[in-house]
Amino acid sequence: MRRLAALGLLVALAGCGIRPTGVVDAGGPAAGIARGPRLFFFQDGRLVSQVRPTGRLGELSDSVIELLKGPPAGMTTELPGRLRFVSADDGDGAGVVVRFTGVSRLPEGALRQIACTVSDRFAATNSGNVPYGVIVVLGARRLPSLSCRS
Fold this sequence. Notes:
Blueprint: H1 2-14, E1 38-43, E2 46-51, H2 60-68, E3 84-89, E4 96-101, H3 108-124, E5 134-138, E6 141-142
Parallel strand pairs: 4-5
Antiparallel strand pairs: 1-2, 3-4, 5-6
Helix pairs in contact: 2-3
């Protein structure tokens, strides 16, 4: 019986062979499952975010497409109906480039809606980091870099 107890004590002291380590940095906390992208619309004259319940976060381009579908009840948009999305990418180095056709100018409010929606979506998949800027291209006209000021 003594031998069995000694063997049990020896096994317990030996552990499983894994050495202890210090704190291991593994990035930000898990964000969970997204209900959908956060889109920016106007409510009572203020720019506010609203989650569009699509069941998934989607790609950056999906967020822009959802934004162009228009606001939910009780909210408004300054995005013109003839604005057409072409593409979005973050390979510019200066920021996220979002291309549109159909208009040659956009109101300030529409630019804010785009900048905030794109910045928020970018941050959602880049550890909370926002892009250097959001660059809107209307046809061949490249606008100055924008940031979200909701």
